[in-house]
Specification:
369 residues, Rossmann fold, 2 domains, six-stranded mixed beta sheet, 13 helices
C-alpha cells in the first residue's frame, strides 16, 4: 500500500494580551492550550499573499534552526513544476540571532521553518505553546512560520501504518522506544496501535528524570500535568541546541539498548547512542551522510527516514512542512491533514527504508523519495 497521504532585553516581540491575534487567544483559556492551527504571526487571522518570487518564479524556503551551523544545507529542486531553493540555516543556539534572522527573512521568502525547537507540544487533543518558540515565530509578521507539527501529525502517523501494511517492518510485539511523544504524538498513537511494547522517553530525554512511561494514557496524563509548566522553560533546557547537537553524551544509552526499534528526534538519539546497536531499527529524520555512517558503524540494521532525501540528507519536518505551505500558497491555519496528504501523494513522497547492513544499500528506490 502506498503512503496515502539570558538577562538581556528579549529581541523577540512579546504579545500584550488577547488582542494580539491567534496566539493571544491562548492566554484567555485558563488551560494555556494552543489553537488548532499553527499561528503565523501577531495578526494571525490576516495573511497577506506570499511574497513575489524572483523572475524565474523560484520559491525560497528557509529553515532557521537553533541547532549547529555545521548541519547547514541548501538544495535547488523542482516540485510540482515549481523551482524551489530549500535552505537550512543554523544559528548555533543563539536565540537573539534566530529572532533577527527570522525578522530579516519575513516578507522575502515563501515560508519559514522553525528548527531546533517545537512551537507546540501535544498531549492527546491538547496542544501547548513553548513560550520562547512562540516569540521566535512572531518575529515574522508576513511570512508563515511552521515547526513541522502539521506534517508530523500526518506524514509520521502514516509512515508507521505504511511500514506495517507494506510488510517493510513487523512492529507488533517489538520493544519500541519513542524518545519524545509530546512532539510526535501522531507517531506515538500509531506505534501504540501497531501493538508495540512502548517506552515513551519524554521524562528521560527532555527532563533528565530516569522514569520510563509505558502507555499512551500514562504519557498523556503526565504531559497534561507537566506541560503547562514545562512550556515556560528555556528551549536549551528541553532540547539540544547549538554545539550540544554535535557531541555524544550517552547518559541514557541503556534505554536504547533495551529497544528493538528507536524512534523520534535524531538529536536525542545521537546524543545517547550506545556503541553497540546491532540489529536495531531507527525511525527518524534530519540525517546527514555522516549520521548514516555512524549508525552503520554502530550496527544499526535498518534506518527509516520519514522525510525525503535531498542531495544526500533528509531535512527536518519543519523544512518540509514549509515546502508544502509554499507550494500550497495557503496559510498554515487553513491546512488540514487531508490537504497535507494530498500534496504528499502528488509529490510521491514515501518513507525511505535503508538496510544499512546490506552492502551498497542506500535506501531502496521504491521506498525513497
Amino acid at each position: 500500500m502506498g503512503l496515502a497521504f539570558q538577562a538581556k532585553e528579549d529581541p523577540c516581540p512579546i504579545l500584550r494580551g488577547p488582542t494580539s491575534g491567534i496566539i493571544g487567544v491562548i492566554y484567555t483559556l485558563g488551560d494555556q492550550v494552543a489553537p488548532d492551527r499553527t499561528p503565523t504571526g501577531p495578526g494571525g487571522t490576516e495573511m497577506r499573499d506570499a511574497p513575489e518570487q524572483a523572475e524565474d518564479d523560484r520559491l525560497r524556503i528557509v529553515s532557521v534552526s537553533l541547532g549547529s551551523s555545521k548541519r547547514n544545507h541548501s538544495v535547488d529542486v523542482v516540485m510540482l513544476g515549481r523551482r524551489l531553493t530549500i535552505e537550512r540555516i543554523g544559528v548555533d543556539g543563539d536565540y537573539h540571532k534566530a529572532c533577527t534572522l527570522i525578522g530579516e527573512l519575513d516578507g522575502e521568502v515563501a515560508a519559514i521553518g522553525l528548527g531546533g525547537t517545537d512551537l507546540f507540544l501535544v498531549a492527546g487533543k491538547r496542544r501547548y505553546v513553548i513560550e520562547q518558540s512562540r516569540r521566535l515565530a512572531e518575529s515574522a509578521r508576513v511570512t508563515p512560520v511552521v515547526d513541522g507539527s502539521g506534517l508530523k501529525n500526518t506524514l509520521e502517523r502514516e509512515t508507521i501504518r505504511w511500514l506495517v501494511d507494506s510488510g517493510e517492518l513487523t512492529l507488533a510485539g517489538k520493544r519500541v522506544l519513542l524518545v519524545s511523544a509530546v512532539d510526535r504524538f501522531g507517531m506515538a498513537e500509531a506505534l501504540s496501535e501497531a501493538g508495540c511494547e512502548m517506552i515513551f522517553g519524554d521524562l528521560i530525554f527532555a527532563l533528565g528524570v530516569p522514569v520510563p512511561v509505558r502507555s499512551l494514557p500514562a504519557i498523556t496524563a503526565v504531559a497534561r500535568l507537566l506541560l503547562p509548566v514545562v512550556r515556560h522553560l528555556p528551549i536549551s533546557v528541553l532540547y539540544p541546541t547549538g554545539r550540544a547537537q554535535e557531541g555524544e553524551r550517552p547518559r541514557h544509552a541503556r534505554w536504547l539498548r533495551w529497544a528493538d526499534v528507536v524512534a523520534g528526534d535524531f538529536h536525542y538519539i545521537r546524543q545517547n547512542l550506545p556503541e553497540n546497536m546491532e540489529g536495531k531499527t531507527i525511525i527518524t529524520n534530519t540525517t546527514t551522510p555522516d549520521d548514516v555512517s555512524l549508525l552503520r558503524e554502530r550496527g544499526v540494521a535498518t534506518l527509516v527516514t520519514t522525510t525525503p532525501e535531498l542531495e544526500g540528507r533528509s531535512f527536518g519536518t519543519n523544512v518540509m512542512e514549509a515546502v508544502l505551505i509554499g507550494l500550497a500558497g495557503r496559510p498554515p491555519e487553513e491546512m488540514q491533514p487531508h490537504d497535507y496528504l494530498a500534496l504528499l501523494n502528488q509529490l510521491g513522497w514515501r518513507p525511505r527504508v535503508s538496510r544499512l547492513g546490506e552492502v551498497g544499500t542506500a535506501g531502496r528506490p521504491g521506498c525513497g523519495s
